[in-house]
Write a structure and sequence with these properties.
18 helices, mainly alpha, 379 residues, single chain
Length: 379
């Protein structure tokens, strides 16, 4: 039998000619993933460089804000430093930049070590508010009110309890001098390298900006750096992360404690690590009582970026303040998990049920969240 004429014609046209190569789907997928990885690595490097530049600018500009902080805001004691850091974190909806600002104020001699410690604690109290804001957004989108707002209230209550107890413990540690011998690397080599790279940029800014404005520019850059860092994190849907396969692990407090610490260590942002609890709760992957250890673990490793800022300042005392934060919160969390976790869990869940029961309770709770830091700030 003979092929049809049209088939013979097609064969004649292709004989002896190179055939077009088609890219196998798997090769295209690998190339796409390689581009994604390269893009995220680039974002990571950019975010780290911007972070270092921001700390350098804030360090140079902190002295220019001395009259504003001391005379206008009157941040002169741990109490009003706590309120100042708390409200500052509300204002910019993030805690890490406020904690870094506290260290630069300390390095410039604007506030003492106790006020610095308290301001950093306040920044962590204010950072949890973003979870409640996200919960409100979910309610506006028609999601379950109790599940959406409950995670925000729980994040604030657990963080508040551990931070308040840790505040007194940490201040006692600083006064005792037990951490005097604990010193990380002074950061001299790193500081010299960053000075070589970033001093020309700082000099350029200072050529046309007043000293105090350098701090504000640094604050804006550090917010940008954290935004870029969030974007370079892996993007996974709940299905991709296969939460269902490990759902049984959420019933183990120590596993959730380690998970919260790990997620926050990777993301370097407690706002990110706690905010994912709202969609997980709405989809039924996790319950309130299971996330309490997660929040406690996140409250420890959230200080990693602040510790890096202390090292970049090349000020051993600044790093010691952050170490005191991490040690105190770790001790508080370990005591709770070991000795009276069930009672702590019930107390927090009772508060969440009361707050989310009706609008009157919710408004009262939010009012307290603003009245307390304002009163502290005015002391």
């Amino acid at each position: 039998m003979h092929d049809p004429p049209e088939k013979d014609a097609r064969s004649a046209e292709t004989d002896g000619q190179p055939q077009p190569l088609t890219t196998p789907p798997i090769v295209g997928l690998r190339a796409s993933r390689a581009r994604v990885r390269f893009g995220k690595v680039t974002l990571f490097i950019a975010s780290m460089l911007l972070f270092i530049l921001a700390i350098t600018l804030m360090k140079e500009g902190a002295k220019g804000l001395t009259p504003l902080v001391k005379d206008t805001f009157r941040v002169e004691s741990p109490a009003n430093a706590l309120g100042f850091g708390w409200l500052f974190a509300y204002l910019i909806m993030s805690g890490s930049p406020v904690a870094a600002a506290a260290l630069t104020f300390f390095d410039a001699g604007v506030i003492d070590q106790y006020s610095t410690y308290a301001m950093i604690s306040g920044s962590r109290l204010g950072a949890s508010f973003i979870v409640l804001v996200i919960g409100f957004l979910y309610v506006l989108r028609g999601r379950n009110r109790s599940a959406s707002l409950g995670m925000g209230v729980l994040s604030l209550s657990v963080t508040g309890a551990t931070q308040v107890v840790g505040l007194f413990l940490g201040l006692a540690l600083l006064r005792s001098g037990w951490l005097q011998g604990v010193r990380l690397g002074s950061g001299g080599v790193l500081s010299s390298l960053t000075d070589l790279i970033f001093d020309p940029i700082v000099f350029w800014f200072s050529s046309f900006l007043p000293e105090w404005a350098l701090f504000l520019v640094g604050l804006g850059i550090i917010l940008l750096s954290f935004n870029l860092f969030d974007r370079c994190l892996p993007e996974m849907t709940i299905r991709d992360s296969q939460v269902g396969r490990v759902s049984r692990l959420v019933y183990r407090p120590w596993v959730m404690f380690a998970l919260g610490a790990g997620v926050t260590l990777i993301s370097m942002s407690i706002s990110v690590s706690l905010s994912i609890l709202v969609p997980l709760s709405n989809r039924g992957f996790i319950r309130r009582e299971n996330v309490i250890p997660y929040i406690m673990g996140a409250s420890i490793t959230t200080f990693i970026d602040t510790l890096v800022a202390g090292i970049l300042l090349n000020n051993p005392q600044a790093a010691s303040i952050v170490i005191a934060q991490m040690v105190s919160i770790s001790l508080v969390s370990l005591v709770i998990l070991t000795l009276f976790y069930k009672r702590f869990e019930q107390a927090n869940l009772t508060l969440v049920r009361w707050v989310t029961h009706n609008n009157y309770h919710l408004v009262l709770f939010i009012a307290v969240l603003f009245i307390v830091p304002i009163v502290l700030f005015l002391l």
